Predict the structure.
Amino acid sequence: MRVKKYAESATVGQLLAEGGETKQPTNKPAVVRFANVGKWYYDSRKKEKIDVLIDFNFEIEADDAGQFVVLLGPSGCGKSTILALISGLISPDEGEVLLNGNPINGPADDSATVPQAYTCFPWLTVLKNVEFGLALQGINKRERNEIAMEYLAKVGLADRFDSYPKQLSGGMQQRVAIARTLATKPAIVLMDEPFGALDAQTRSEMQQMLIELWEEEKNTIIFVTHDITEAVLLGDRVVVFPSRPIRDHQVHERRDLDEVLGHARPPEVARKHEFTELAEEFRLKLREAFPASYR
Ligand SMILES: Nc1ncnc2c1ncn2[C@@H]1O[C@H](COP(=O)(O)OP(=O)(O)OP(=O)(O)O)[C@@H](O)[C@H]1O
Ligand SMILES: [Mg+2]
């Protein structure tokens, strides 16, 4: 279930008057916190520094664990960099990135990534691909076989367990990647444009499958896309990065999509006028910086 959220300014009295579930603020550390993060690369060809994040602050509060958070922005704005910082693949040049209050020192079990391109191991069967992460966690053979089959069933591929990736369509391969990631039960799932290479119909099927899986698994999802419609369809919270470098005051976000659109997000939700309005709001923000990409 999508977690019902209210604007931070609402008082407890207002919430009770609305008949909503009230949530007491917790003192637990944020699920993810970027504290004054600076990140840059060096382009050795052009001999120049490329700033990606400048004094960037961002938080997914403990109360928001289990939310579907979408990072929306054009190509090159720094979305994958943010995911790489959370997954511990790279480190900030300034400031800190914390998971559950702890600074990240290299890849941790708390998060797992579904990457931009298909990354099944071609020499392993579908089943062995899904078992791979479980083997790294030290789970015994019988148990990992059971868990892998359970997750293959969840993504609708139980009957293809002994196929090799090259025998599967692109959409099916991406289902394997999702099964492999979710099977290890990470608290945070990082998804980097996982459906970017798929045709529109397959993409829509995959979006619906992901919504169902997430409602069962209850992981916190941080989902990167440059597609406005995908962002509005999937997100509880959408964070818009209009340009690079990313600085706080240029970031635009909405945290109330489940209130505006409702919890259920079948494909038809895209026909609601609230959906169109949100999409337009994000498109205008993005167009300010990238007129050609978001007409
Ligand atoms: N290792 C690197 N060395 C130099 N520059 C890099 C490196 N990695 C990323 N960059 C640059 O940093 C910027 C942000 O890259 P990033 O991959 O985070 O963007 P993105 O938003 O994920 O883009 P896309 O949507 O195309 O995947 C880009 O300009 C990119 O060229
Ligand atoms: Mg990227």
